[in-house]
Amino acid sequence: MAWLMAILQTLLFIALAPLLSGWIKRVKCRLQNRKAPSLFQPYRDLRKLYRKQPIVPHPASWIFRAAPYIVFASTVLAAATVPLAAIHLPTARIADVIVLVGFFALGRMFLVLAGMDVGTAFGGMGSSREMTISSLAEPAMLMAVFTLAMSAHTTNLSQAVNFVLDTGLVLRPSFVFALGGLMLVAIAETGRIPVDNPATHLELTMIHEAMILEYSGRWLALIEWASQIKLMLYGVLIANIFFPWGIAQTFTVNALALGLGVITLKLAVLAVMLAVSEVLFAKMRIFRVQEYLSFAYLLSVLGMLSHIILEAAR
Amino acid sequence: MSLFLAGISVLAALLSALAALVSGPNGLLWHGMLRWVGQATFRPARTNERLTPGRFSRLARTMPFVLLGASGGFAVTAGLIALLGGATRTVTLPFGLPWLNWHLALDPLAGFFFCVLGIPLIAASLFGPGYVREFEHGKHKLSVLGLFTGLFVAGMELVLLANDAFLFMIAWELMSVASYFLVAYQHEHATHRRAAFLYLLMAEIGAIAIILAFGVLAGFSGGLTFEALRSAALNPLWASIAFALALAGFGMKAGLVPLHTWLPEAHPAAPSHVSALMSGVMLKIAIYGFIRFTFDLLPSLLWQWGVLVLLIGSASAVLGILYALQQQNLKRLLAYSSVENVGIIFTALGLALIFQSSGQSLLGTLGLVAALLHSLNHALFKSLLFLGAGAILHQTHEQSLENMGGLIHRMPKLAALFLIGTLSISALPPFNGFVSEWLIFQTALQAGSIQSGILRSLIPTASAVLALTSALAATCFVKVYGVAFLGLPRSRHIARAREIRHPGMLAGPALLAACCVLFGVLPMPLINALGALTQSLTGFVLPNISALGWLWLTPVSPEVAAYSPALVLLGTVAVGWLCYYLLYRRTGLEPRRAEPWDCGFGGLTPRTQYTSGSFSMPIRRIFEPVFDTRETVEEQTEGPASTRVTGLRYQFQVLDRAWAVLYEPSGRAVTRLARWVGRVQTGNIRTYLGYAFFTLIILLWVVS
Amino acid sequence: MIAAYLVLVIPLAGMAILGLLADSRRAGRINVHCNAWALAASIWLAIDVLVHGPRLSSGQLLYIDSFNVYLIVLTAFVGLTTSIFSGPYMAHELETGRVNVKRLRLYYAMYQGFMLAMYLVLTTNNMGVLWVAMEGATLATVLLVSLYRTPESVEAAWKYFILCGVGIALALFGTVLLYFAAEQKLGIGGNALLWTVLHVNAGALEPNIMRLAFVFLLVGYGTKIGLVPLHNWLPDAHSEGPTPMSAILSGLLLNDALYAVVRCKMLVDGSLGTQVAGYLMMGFGLLSFLVAALFLHRQTDIKRLFSYSSIEHMGLMTFAFGIGSPWATFAALFHMTTHSLTKSAIFVTVGHAAQLAGTQRMDRIRGLILTQPAIGWGLLIGTVAIAGFPPFGVFASEFLVLIATMRDYPWLTPLLLIGIGVAFAGLFRHLQLMVYGDVPEGQKPIPANLLPVMIHLALVLWLGLSIPGFLGDWFSQATQLISGASPL
Amino acid sequence: MDFAELSLYSQAVLLLAGLIALTSFLMLGQSRLVRLVLVFAIQGILLAATTAMVAGVLDFPHLYISAGLSFLLKGILIPVMLHRMIYRLGLHRELDTIEHPARVMMGGAFLVVFSYYVSLPVVAHSPLVTLNAIAVSLAVVLLGMLLMITRRQAVAHVVGFMSIENGLFFAAVVSTYGMPMVVELGVAADVLVAAVVFGVFFFQIRESIDSLDVDRLSKLTEVDKP
Q1: Does a structural domain hold residue D2?
Q2: Which residue(s) pair with C466 in the sheet?
């Protein structure tokens, strides 16, 4: 039963991810006084791509073909371990939050390799930048996660959420810092403004898009879908770790429905915040990203230190 | 039984050295004897033509490797028996000093490292016969290579077996000297000579530091056997001195920053199967020595040591990988990455020390297990990568990443094996590198249970550095794989590279790759096997490690953290296959080959690709202060009077800061001091008489 | 005791025969024979001592105990192997015209003369005779240093003669003081210079006089050991003389001078009951060790290089004897053996290498391994052994010295560490360039007899792996004798 | 005890000691080689005389042999040899001036005081009155070394060397009434051979550098060559 729930939740995750992207786009359009596409436009895009014949560039090898599947699979696995609407799911035991970071790294690795596989300047450029940014973002993220883990005495996400629920509303300074750090990292890792702009193909500034420039057809669909899941993953992480209230602790229909409704609401709010920030800020130069990420790292470190200094049990 | 097998393993290694020495028309003794006969009749250097190189030479080439492989096999068997059996076997051999014979012992710790040694050794001896074929007609005798490889392996095995300080040092130095000759094997290159010199010099200084560390213990105990040394009653000051000396000595061998500079010079210089052993195994022997000395011989531990080790380990890890990122030479890059991994291992050991000394023995045990596991894992994947680099070198005679590219098309099998190594070393789930790093993170996260607030804040910071390191490691190895194997070939000889034909040269890496996957997916049996080891060193066995069954890894308790690599692999494969099935099998849309986007310039050339140097440029720019970069732009003009620039020559070099800070000044200081002292010897006999005169006067004055 | 007399008579006879014999070709063979017989006699002597314990000759003139018996065998052995090497070597020198037949005769006669002096130094029981023999050794070798009659060799010989002469004269003054001190207690007569008598009565000797005497003896014999700052003759003499002579100077003479100092130290320690002698020796030893290590970096001549290495090792031994603890003493005794075996082997290969390249300048000696592997590897392995790498014997003694220093004088260990490192770098920075690399043009293999090298290195290897029981016993007994405690 | 109360023998020994020290000083200040050798001969004869006197007064017959050897070797043979050598090598007209004669003499005087200071503990433990002379013999040894340090001529070095030996012998005679016979003979033989070898060297040096100036024997050095 629990396993079934876990699989269902994962499927739900996969299914809902494009919707979130559609929602963000819609909010953004509204904010920019543009006419918004349908909320389901991402699904239509995916379907269209799925039907197209994919193209393999000449220099590419099997890595290029395999990468989308691995990227998608690793993202799905990551999604499986994050509690969406309910906690105490058995999948949470397969992997903790460190493994989650590992899943992201695995997917990224293959994406980057695929970018280098095509042998173009763009592929290499995107790969190089992606790795640079992620290698700075990863410690910041882990640091934020560690702050949480040290408070909760666990790296298991389900347990951590449970801990926050159990302790109730506590104004932990460390959580505030960690939240800030994690949000900044999330923006960097999902390739949003001001670090990267997913909507542009401007040659010299793109990062994520540069890597996948040669992808087409179903492969592109998989990659796009995976990055939508990833975006939602970060949203769920932030929402459920720091504001877990409402999440289902038992597998009753009521609780689950409540949990689902609450998480939808939380994600919607987060999406609006993201859209607003994307409208307000402009994309940074690539070598200013390090300052941005060091700030994220600083926030995480402050979170850790405040956990040790301010929240020390006497 | 276990000790007997270990002994056989040592003997096999020595026999392999002997076999190399006597065998073949290329053999040293044989050759030397012929020379001798030739000289006796004053006909020097007549080449031997009686034995045509054919079956005999092949036998001569493979025989040492067969014996080495046997040595590896026995080593693994002996190690497993010792590790699982948990008992310590000792024996005394009638060698050495009159009152200090050679004491040998095999306990679980040594047994574990026997396994660490054995697996790469088997792989290297599978790889070797094919690899050394090209040396057969070179200037340098194969027998020299075989002789010192055998001695090198025997030395490492004896280090593990040694149960007294004297034998330990003999074996230790034997290992150093033998590997010195291997580094200097192709000695017509000045860089190799330099590397060998630096290597042996640092090995010597490190060895003296270790001897002195033993000396401190011996001074307080009165004997040189490990048993006697364990009983030394040290005060904290002397214990700290002993510890510092041991850290310097073993750290120098292991390649800790800033004592690492020999490593990136020496490892690339040796033949590749030896590099694999040096980087994969020899560094682990140094770690063994450190563990043996710290956890076993020293009577008590201080948390300050742990902090020191943690700091040095973290610095080595992050600096090692930053320098690795900037390397263009593949083997050099791998060597710097070894510095990084040793740093990670020492970080774990530092954690273990801190926990152990703070009374949290269980967590200390966890840290130790993480360190041991990472040692094994690093031995596996680093040997795999070095063998892979060796295979590339063998097929293309190319070491520089800047000239590689697209090898996945030319050498698909090797590319697949190398990819496994790359994923493992980048610490990606579900491969083995991830398991050990995960354990280290888990250890670090238990910092909350320590009383001292300073330590509690230090440890997470160190683990964040570790996170940075592993992210950078991923970047580094993406670069390696992407530049070497993917994209378009950057030079003509790479474009014409051929797949390896010698089956052994694939079997060796394949064995290691299989182990990487196996230990990545099923680490549980391995960790359980370490029980006897930790019991003897820290007095604890991890109790909850398999609380959820053999599929799950739960270092502290199921509530705190759990990880199931097997299920991760299963899930990844299932999802991936499902997508593949749904998206490809069901639609049947075959992909089409086409030209990639080239901005409309008409045809891609390899020159437009990102190179190794450009890939790592952002990192270089971000971490600017760490590197000693030297950039020169040379303008080429038509003539001396002309100002028109016809071409530009751009040169770029990233140097290790340790050189400018530590090594060059000390080298200069010695030279200056020598010059200064040299003035004493004027050449004038009257000055010399004056020295004798004043010496006498001063001494008379002193004693009366 | 016949064996002891034989050991002395054989080289005496050899000196006479070789001095009168004109045939240079046969002279080489006779030289080998003399040494072989001397070796046989010394082995007989050794067995005698092994069976019966320390032996005192009837006139109390000769005394053999476990301290000197192995040095006698070692001397005979190195003398033999070096003479085996010196035959073809000197023949080559004769062919190239560097020496003539007359000088060759002098060479062979003085070779035996030197051996005689060495045996006498080791066997005698009389401190005065010891001095006479030591001076005799100088006189025997000084003309060999200038054998080639080049300006440099004459200069070297002159310095050798004057510096060692003055030094040894000071040692005589020390001996006179020793005699004086003894005479006050033992009365006037011939016995007051006998070491056995002195040693028994050491406790009764007047400490003030003994202290002065030791200063003179140390400065005097220390000149011969090559202790800094009295060492200046040593590199000159080693580098300019014929190579076989460098081998025996480095391998034997230095050892014997150190032997003399240690014998004196035993007396002084017995008299003073303090560590003054030990401190002096430690100071000199350490200074020599460090300075010689630095000098290694500045060398351009291959034989000079290795003679500085000899100074360095003698410094280490002196230092170890100075520490005086059982382990250190054992180490020093063992080091005397391994160093002289290794160093003489190195000088043999160096001689061949210099003949191969036609020069002693190190920047012209290149690619030895590829030109003639036996010489290249011999030199390389020899240097590895002398640098103190196991499994060669030098390592064992360096190991013990380091451990012993750590036990007794830990604050000196950083100096030792630096010294060993600097010395190692100094040796190898030159050595690597010579043995490795490509063959320079026109360099061809030469006829060389590397049997002595192989035997020596094999012995050093054997000693490094395991010390034979009887030798270990001797070392232990000598340690007991010198330091007053057993290393066990 | 007052000097006047000593036995005549003791007074004589001490007088001779003073004379020997004087000869050492004379040698130190002498710039002509021929005269240097002459003074050295006188020193040898004084030494022989002392030995003979000790032998005669205290009845040590073996010291007569020693005295004879000293007289023959140091008083006659070696000076004559050196003298002939100087003429043969054409050095009899050459001056070997020392750079700072006053300072050297002051140094010499200091050495005598120093020797006295050093030998005090030795003297203190002996009933022999004549032992004060041991300070003089030490001074002679040190002065001999000083002579060698200040002189450039090889011949002067030989003289200095031999005068050190004289100092030693004097010490042996006054403190211990000579060494055992076998040692005496050995030492004498060594001195003889040394003298011969010196002779050989003069010619070798002459051949190689065309002079006997030891300052020019400085090819073998560790100083950086410009």
Answers
A1: no
A2: B96
**Both tokens of residue A109?**
């690795």
From the CA atom positions of chain C, what is the Rg in Å? 21
Residue (of B77, B89, B121) closest to B284 by Cα position: B121
Domain boundaries, chain B: 1-225+267-279, 617-655, 659-703
Report yes or no on D216 lying in a domain: no
- Amino acid identity for residue C416 in this structure: L
Q: For the whole prediction, is pTM greater than 0.95?
A: no
Chain D: closest CA distance from residue C399 (Å):
31
- Give the residue ranges of DSSP H helices in B358-425: 361-396, 407-410, 412-425
Q: In this structure, what are the phi and psi dihedrals at residue B266, rounded to the nearest 5 degrees?
A: -80, -45
Cα separation, B316 vs B313, whole angstroms? 5
Render pLDDT for B246-297 as a digit per residue (tens, 0 to 9).
Answer: 999 999 999 898 888 888 888 888 889 999 999 989 999 999 999 999 998 8
- Strand B592-594 and strand A55-57: the pairing is parallel
Q: Which of D117, D214, D222 sits opposite B685 (nearest CB)?
A: D214
HEC sequence for B278-294: HHHHHHHHHHHHHHHHH
CB B136 within 8 A of CB B108: no
A38 near A283, Cβ under 8 Å? no
Residue carrying structure tokens 């202290």: C211
Distance of alpha carbon C246 from alpha carbon C242, whole angstroms? 7
Contact list in B for residue A7 (CB cut-off 8 A) is: none
Q: What are D132-145's pLDDT values in tens digits? A: 778 888 899 999 99
**Does the pLDDT at position D2 exceed 80?**
no
| Tally of structural domains, chain D | 1
Q: CA-to-CA distance for B445 and A142, rounded, in angstroms?
A: 11
Q: B181, B192 in Cβ contact below 8 A?
A: no
Q: Report the C-alpha gap between C303 and C292 in whole angstroms.
A: 14
Q: Which one of B673, B675, B697 makes the best mutation probe of the D interface by having the most chain D beta carbons within 10 Å?
A: B697
User: Distance between CA atoms of D157 and C163, rounded to whole angstroms?
Assistant: 11
Q: Which amino acid is at C230?
A: L
Q: Of C364, C288, C277, which Cα lies nearest the Cα of C324?
A: C277
Burial bucket for residue B34 (CB in 10 Å: 0-12, 13-18, 19+): middle
DSSP summary character for residue B600: T
- Domain with D61 in it: 7-211
Nearest to A154 among B441, B457, B561 (CB): B561
Q: Do D215 and B693 touch (CB under 8 A)?
A: no
Beta bridge partners of B162: B104
ipTM of the complex: 0.90
Rounded Cα distance between C60 and C417, Å, is 44
Q: At residue A144, what are phi and psi to the nearest 5 degrees?
A: -60, -45
State yes or no: chains D and C have 3 or more CB pairs below 8 A.
Answer: yes
The DSSP call for residue A195 is T
| Domain spans of chain A, in order of start | 2-309
Angle between helices B453-485 and A121-152 (to 10 degrees): 160
Lowest mean pLDDT: which of A180-189, D72-81, D214-223? D214-223
* Residue extents of the structural domains in chain C: 279-488
pLDDT of residue B40: 45
Under 8 Å between Cβ of B290 and B250: yes
Backbone angles phi, psi at B140, to 5 degrees: -100, 140
Assigned token pair, C330: 């054992």
* Residue B677 φ then ψ, to 5°: -65, -35
The first and second tokens of residue A215, run together, are 């992808």
Q: Which residues contact A32 (CB under 8 A, 6 or more apart)?
A: A279
The pLDDT score that the predictor gives to residue C67 is 86
Q: What is the distance in angstroms between the Cα of D55 and the nearest Cα belonging to chain B? A: 31
pLDDT, residue D190, reads 85
Query: Does residue D54 belong to any structural domain of this protein?
Result: yes
Q: What is d(CA D186, CA D181) in angstroms, rounded to the nearest whole number?
A: 8
